[in-house]
TrEMBL record, chain A:
The keyword Thylakoid does not apply. It is a multi-pass membrane protein. Its main location: membrane. Belongs to the cytochrome ubiquinol oxidase subunit 2 family. This is Cytochrome d ubiquinol oxidase subunit II. The chain crosses the membrane at residues 6-39, 85-103, 123-145, 165-187, 199-218, 230-254, 266-286, 306-325. InterPro entries: Cyt-d_oxidase_su2. GO terms for cellular component: cytochrome complex; plasma membrane. The lineage of its organism: Bacteria, Pseudomonadati, Pseudomonadota, Alphaproteobacteria, Acetobacterales. It comes from the Bacteria. One of its GO terms (molecular function) is electron transfer activity. Keywords: Cell membrane, Membrane, Transmembrane, Transmembrane helix.
UniProtKB/TrEMBL annotation, chain B:
It is found in: Cell inner membrane; Cell membrane. Residues 444-480 are annotated as: Disordered. Belongs to the cytochrome ubiquinol oxidase subunit 1 family. Residues 445-457 have a biased composition (Polar residues). Keywords: Cell membrane, Electron transport, Heme, Iron, Membrane, Metal-binding, Transmembrane, Transmembrane helix, Transport. Residues 464-474 have a biased composition (Basic and acidic residues). It is a multi-pass membrane protein. This is Cytochrome ubiquinol oxidase subunit I. It comes from Komagataeibacter xylinus. GO terms for cellular component: cytochrome complex; plasma membrane. Its main location: membrane. GO terms for biological process: aerobic electron transport chain. One of its GO terms (molecular function) is oxidoreductase activity, acting on diphenols and related substances as donors, oxygen as acceptor. Pfam families: Cyt_bd_oxida_I (PF01654).
Length: 341, 480
């Protein structure tokens, strides 16, 4: 394999992983806020929760469209294999995201007049968030446990993805997003709501930690190469920091939560997500569709990858810059005092 | 075999259903974002309150339409893979790259500045806020450009080679791919359609409020009158332009997709003094258009701009390569008829405007209310015409639809089809009801513009797009 044909897919693999990571973080706390609607019943608290993300959620969700488009343009072999294989959870997730997205807008608009339907849309926001989060976890689990392919095309059944492992992954993501949402709110709100979030964050963190341990151990049992990646010498030197850092971050998280820090729990949770995601990446590398297809098997021709890379190298920094700008415009605590009564 | 054919049909129906819903929202966003940019720009230039009032009024609508566009578009970005995986694998190196550019140059821009546009009036100042509005509007136009480049490439593919063995389309010349022969015409036709669709919704809204004011024995408020006048100017100017653009697009289609033209026209045999069929029922089995009513020579005149120009017939093409005429014969005629009605509306308003009666004619206002959906109906009919007219190909002349579909099982396809129909009708139906309810409220006068730094938070809430009791505005008090 010559240079470009080898390196372009590697570079794109890194960009795609980064885009998915950014999506998980940004839409993760959006979805987490929806999941936390299950615990927070007061309307004014719910309004504050929603207002912390109102100016940014469209942008957050765009990272998922970007992920789909990159997969389609740069790794069409993975796009055309994974989506039929994960057809049911993907469509379910998309429909749940529709509910989440519109419920978010409609819950306020339906509040006026008799026969208010805003309670229904509040429920839709919560249910849509839970289902979308679960499906995302199940999709990740479905990819990691492997997809059956014949000559580069999906050749399995419609419910192959549904296993105890993928269900556990789905539950882990729901818990993880809820924790991310709670920590986001600890950072961005104050008063009673912030206090509630501190109370929720502790058990959520413990549950997430248990999930991380369970998924990690289970993953190594799925395929022999997965286990070798983590225990064989000298790989172990490179991968050992991952579990160690998970322990360190959890300790800092608990310390920050106890000492009523505002942003420390959020940063630690981001770190946990990053480590978990990196761990999965290390496990499946260099496969795009485990266990059969590598990054190179599913790639576009170098001419497509190069053309898209030129634009990405210019545009992605610009996108990140104005995304940061937009977050800065709406920085600071969101409180009920900001409302109009 | 039966279940394979049914699965293909379901995959097609599901895709058409979801795109059909989706296409309305971006078109609405394209037109509305441009309108908002014009309103805010005019307000900044003239300082007249009425433009700010209208801006705030339509901004609320925009926030809802945009949200529905985002979520329905999200579905589209994954549906190429779920329903058309073979197409994705083969054409992804071209269409997927164009879609990625759309996301990077347009979607992020729109979504990134939408927050500032909706909630930032008091936070960034007038100039920056206007810049945000313009960037969102620019984003909608860039988005349309890329998606039409991709769609046009599927209609008139250029700049590719086909990889032996795999059948993949490999990019050879990106400029030829993007600026393929039908792209400029499609872009112009779709852009004008978006502006016209929104003009008629805006015009109908204003007309409804003028009729309501008349019933109360009042003069319509200034924002309502300005809204109506602007909408009617758009109809007067853009609707005739659209006729010209459509004619140019038709000539282009005749050159590159003659089978589509034959099916649109219901012509079976190629002839050089062709009539224009006004009505009829094309029958694909008997190869004849039943009950045809036509005007002699007009077909040649319209399609070739000469009385004896040669017009293709469907019998020129093998039966398995013919688009289903019975659908697009009608969708094309509905589109043209509605286009004529829009031109008529524009002329009527112009005549009344010259006589100084544009705000007084109840007949014009009633007609404008009835015309509210015609832009969108015409747009959907045009879209069906061009997409069904491309059949039986996904990449015209190169990749057949039946060879593009995913290896999906019928039960999961049927299950999700049901879910799509139920969810879409419920969610977007609710959205439509909410929009109509919002538009029933007349625009407020005296909306607040951006105030100076750190103004009272009460004012902040007034610029909130939802601006309803109980909704809070995100409003920072500095870094945590």
């Amino acid at each position: 394999m010559d240079g470009a044909a080898y390196w372009l897919p590697v570079i794109w693999g890194v960009i795609l992983a980064a885009a998915i990571m950014i999506y998980i973080v940004l839409d993760g706390f959006d979805l987490g806020i929806g999941i936390l609607f299950a615990f927070e019943r007061r309307r004014d608290s719910r309004d504050i929760m929603v207002n912390t993300i109102a100016p940014v959620w469209d942008g957050n969700e765009t990272w998922m469209v970007f992920g789909g488009a990159v997969l389609y343009g740069v790794f069409p072999g993975a796009y055309s294999t994974l989506l039929p294989a994960l057809y049911l959870p993907v469509v379910t997730m998309l429909l749940a995201l529709i509910f989440r997205g519109v419920a978010f807008e409609f819950r306020v608009l339906t509040r006026i007049g008799a026969g208010s339907r805003s309670a229904f849309w509040d429920f839709g926001f919560m249910a849509g968030s839970v289902i979308a989060a679960f499906c995302q976890g199940a999709i990740v689990g479905g990819v990691i446990q492997g997809v059956s392919t014949t000559e580069g095309s999906f050749s399995g059944g419609p419910v192959d993805w549904l296993t105890p492992f993928s269900v556990l992954c789905g539950m882990s993501v729901v818990l993880g997003y809820a924790l991310l949402g709670a920590c986001w709110l600890i950072w961005r709100t104050e008063g009673a709501l912030q206090q509630h979030c501190r109370v929720w964050a502790f058990p959520l963190a413990l549950a997430l930690l248990a999930c991380i341990v369970a998924v990690s151990i289970w993953t190594t049992q799925l395929h022999a190469p997965y286990l070798r990646r983590w225990i064989a010498w000298p790989n172990i030197l490179i991968v050992a920091p991952v579990p160690i850092l998970v322990g360190v971050l959890t300790a800092i998280f608990m310390w920050g939560l106890r000492n009523r820090h505002h942003i420390t729990p959020f940063l630690c949770t981001l770190g946990l997500f990053f480590l978990s995601f990196s761990g999965l990446g290390i496990t499946v590398w260099p496969h795009a569709v485990p266990p059969g297809l590598t990054l190179w098997d599913v790639s576009s021709p170098p001419s497509s990858q190069a053309f898209e890379l030129v634009g990405t190298a210019i545009l992605l920094p610009v996108i990140l810059a104005y995304t940061v700008y937009s977050y800065r415009v709406f920085r600071g605590k969101v409180t009920a005092d900001d409302s109009y009564h | 075999m039966v279940s394979t054919a049914t699965a293909l049909l379901l995959a097609r129906f599901q895709f058409a259903f979801t795109v059909g819903f989706h296409i309305v929202f971006p078109a609405f966003s394209i037109g509305l974002a441009a309108y908002l940019a014009v309103l805010e720009g005019t307000w900044l230039k003239t300082g007249r309150q009425v433009y700010l009032d209208l801006y705030q009024y339509w901004l609320k609508v925009f926030s809802i339409v945009f949200a529905m566009g985002v979520v329905s578009g999200l579905v589209m970005s994954y549906e190429f893979g779920t329903n058309w995986s073979v197409f994705s694998r083969k054409a992804g190196p071209i269409t997927g790259v164009l879609l990625s550019y759309e996301v990077m140059t347009a979607f992020f821009l729109e979504a990134g500045f939408l927050g500032v546009m909706l909630f930032g009036m008091n936070k960034v100042g007038r100039g920056l806020h206007f810049a945000a509005t313009c960037l969102v509007s620019l984003g909608t136009l860039i988005s349309m450009t890329w998606i039409l480049a991709s769609n046009s490439w599927m209609q008139t593919p250029r700049g590719y080679t086909i990889e032996p063995g795999t059948g993949r389309f490999l990019p050879a010349d990106w400029l030829a791919i993007i600026f393929n022969p039908s792209f400029p015409f499609r872009l112009l036709h779709m852009g004008l359609a978006a502006f016209l669709s929104v003009a008629f919704v805006v015009g109908a809204t204003a007309a409804g409020h003028m009729l309501a004011a008349r019933r109360r024995g009042e003069q319509a408020s200034e924002p309502v009158r300005v809204m109506f006048s602007m909408a009617m100017w758009m109809a007067t100017i853009i609707a005739p332009l659209q006729l010209v653009a459509g004619d140019m697009h038709g000539l282009n289609t005749l050159e590159h997709q003659p089978a589509k033209i034959a099916a649109m026209e219901g012509d079976w045999t190629s002839e050089d003094h062709a009539p224009e069929l006004l009505l009829g029922i094309p029958n694909m089995k008997t190869e004849h258009t039943d009950y045809a009513v036509g005007i002699p020579l007009l077909g040649s005149l319209i399609l070739t701009h000469s009385l004896d120009g040669k017009v293709p017939g469907m019998k020129d093409f093998p039966a398995q390569d013919r688009p289903p005429s019975y659908i697009i014969f009608f969708t094309f005629r509905i589109m043209v008829a509605l286009g004529m009605a829009m031109i008529g509306m524009g002329l009527w308003s112009l005549i009344l405007r010259r006589r100084g009666r544009i705000y007084d004619s109840a007949a014009l206002h009633r007609a404008a209310v009835v015309m509210a959906p015609v832009g969108f109906v015409a747009l959907l009919c045009g879209w069906v015409t061009t997409e069904v007219g491309r059949q039986p190909w996904t990449v015209y002349g190169l990749l057949r639809t039946e060879n593009s579909v995913s290896p999906l099982m019928l039960p999961s396809m049927a299950l999700t089809m049901t879910a799509f129909v139920v969810v879409y009708f419920f969610v977007f139906g609710s959205g439509l009801i909410l929009l109509v309810r919002m538009l029933r409220h007349a625009p407020q006068t005296g909306e607040q513009g951006p105030t100076t730094e750190n103004s009272a938070s009460v004012l902040g809430a007034r610029s909130h797009p939802h601006e309803l009791p109980g909704h809070d505005t995100p409003h920072g008090s500095g870094p945590a």
